[in-house]
Amino acid sequence: MSNGIDPAVPPGGDGCQECLAGDGWWVHLRRCAECGHVGCCDSSPAQHGTRHFEATGHPIVQSFEPGEEWFYDFRTREVGRGPELAAPTSHPRDQPVPAPADRVPADWRKLVR
């Protein structure tokens, strides 16, 4: 592991771990580059990706969206590139956005940042 990134660690699932454990929903997903935790983005109501950083100090996430490879460093607030992480590198392409579909309220656009 180097500077908050462990390329060998696989993602913790296909969706936000905390939202799935409760009754939440998300807009986009972020993957912790250190431990593989998958959390929801800051546009999502619960912002579990940022909360994971605050709780663990793991500073770097990668987008967990299909076709996106960028990394974000919470310490510097900079977006950049990084090494290839263990597969899979995104949630399934057929997963809706926002998700999970059966939990997303009809007025979801009013509820996001």
From TrEMBL:
PROSITE patterns: ZF_UBP. It holds the Pfam family zf-UBP. Residues 81-113 are annotated as: Disordered. It comes from Nocardiopsis terrae. Residues 1-96 form the UBP-type domain. InterPro entries: Znf_RING/FYVE/PHD, Znf_UBP. It comes from the Bacteria. This is UBP-type domain-containing protein. SUPFAM superfamilies: RING/U-box. Residues 104-113 have a biased composition (Basic and acidic residues).
